[in-house]
Structure formats: C-alpha cells, structure tokens
Amino acid sequence: MVEDEAELAVAIAARLRSDGHEVQVSGDGPGAVGLVASWRPDAVVLDVMLPGFDGLEVCRRIQRDRPVPVIMLTARGSETDRVVGLEVGADDYLCKPFSMRELAARVRALLRRSERLAGQPERVLRAGGVAVDVPRRRAWVDGRLVALTATEFDLLAFLLADPGVVRTRGELLAEVWGYRDGSGPRTVDSHVRAVRRKVGAEVIRTVHGIGYAGADGSEG
Ligand code: CA
User: Fold this and answer.
1) What pLDDT digit, counting tens, does each position of 169-198 carry?
2) How far does residue 50's CA lie from ligand 1's centre (Å)?
3) What is the distance in A from the centroid of ligand 1 to the CA of 39?
C-alpha cells in the first residue's frame, strides 16, 4: 500500500488486513520501490501523488524489475487520463474518493486474476528485441517495458502470433477491433504507425496493396 496521506493509508491497510491480506505501507516513491523489491508483494495499491517521485514513476520502476499487479489510486480528471492513457503497467485504477468495499473487491479480483495467470503456461511471442507476454498483456523492447494501449497490444500480439502471415486491413479490423463492416482502414494504419514508433518499425512489415505481417522471430 503506497499512500502518503497517513490517515487514508492506515484505513486502507486496516481494511485489507481484515480481508486476510498481509499489508505493508510506504509513504513515498523511493520507499515504495525499495519495499516492493525487498518484500515482493503479490499486488500493489499505489497512489499517484507521492513525495519523491509520483506513482506513475513507481509503477514504471517496479514493473521493470518484476511484473506485479498494480491498482492505481487517482484524483479525478487528468491524473486518471494519464494512468489510463499511458499504460505504465497498472492493471486497474480507482478514482478518489472510493469506498473501502470497492477497493477490497478490486484487490480480491486482481489477486484471483494473477493467480489464474500464474497457473497458465507462459506464452511469450518474440520478434527481434521485442517480447510480448500475451496472458499478462505486457510488451518489452530490449528488456524495457513499453507502454502500449490495449488496441496497440492486441494488434501487435495478433500479428506476431503468426509471424510472416499477411493480414488485410479488413481482417485486422475484424480480429483486433471486432468490426464486422470492414470500415476504417485508416484506423489500422494509424495504429500500425503507433506500434512501430514504440517497438520498432521492423516488427510489422507492410505488404503493399494488401496489408501487414508480423516479422519472423528469426529476422532479428
Ligand atoms: Ca497522495
């Protein structure tokens, strides 16, 4: 539990303990990174506004070491946009003020989900320096976690699942976006551009006049 407002931190910790969780509390960014590294919790509840550096930076740093489920606590408005839009590696978020019951339910759901995922065989797709952990929905370039939006992630994972197989824009719209009318090919192009910008242009190959294909792992 990472929160610098002591009263709130104590209340949250008490609620989570009464639910049967072991809880440790940190009140600042650097302390939180150290605590997560040494204590290795199953989940982190993380406030955005913290002394030292903020929760987004904490989230980036702890995800780099070892992926851990994170629920971010945000103030309404721009903070929420940053958490949702940047995808720093948080799994869920709650806007302040929230009810303790809601938080406890989210923590339980998150732990259930991560236990389920831990039981799954690993499924990591690779192409050159890019690694995509499909069940955990995380992607790395040369070992560095990259912030992909949900759609960018789905597009990349879909293309890399069958390396070298050429997909038309219509196919991608149907499979990734779930569109059935085949409209919006520009949507595909702009998302391909965004993914290339983040993970490297060579990962998605353009097949002129047809569509796109994921690079072969062996292509490097
Ligand atoms: Ca705070």
Assistant:
1) 999 988 888 776 656 778 889 889 999 999
2) 5
3) 22
